[in-house]
Write a structure and sequence with these properties.
about 0% strand; 3 helices; mainly alpha; single chain; about 65% helix
Length: about 100
């Protein structure tokens, strides 16, 4: 494969003769090639950035509250009582719906 070293000189001469059909075709091909390369680079960059963001570890929680490792029996009973109260309130509201006044 042979690489052409005088691309800049050829492109300037093609641009100078842009009113000629042969130059127009070659300029269009060069423009299309540049556009395809730009789109390919943008797609690869977007995919690479997405993978990078996806694989980045999550930041540590900085709320200042230390997690509690053990629950006492009293704390567990309080939590269970709260859930039971919530369940009872839901059942009451489901059986006896609230009365809505007529707005007229």
């Amino acid at each position: 494969m042979r690489f052409d070293q005088n691309i800049r000189i050829k492109m300037t001469s093609l641009y100078a003769a842009r009113h000629e059909p042969e130059a127009y075709t070659l300029l269009a091909r060069a423009y299309w090639a540049v556009m395809v390369v730009v789109v390919a680079v943008l797609m690869v960059g977007g995919i690479a950035y997405g993978v990078w963001e996806f694989l980045k570890p999550l930041p540590e929680a900085t709320s200042g509250v230390k997690p509690q490792l053990n629950l006492s029996k009293a704390q567990l009973e309080k939590i269970l009582k709260g859930f039971q109260t919530r369940s009872d309130n839901y059942e009451k509201s489901r059986v006896a719906p609230t009365v809505v006044r007529d707005p007229s």
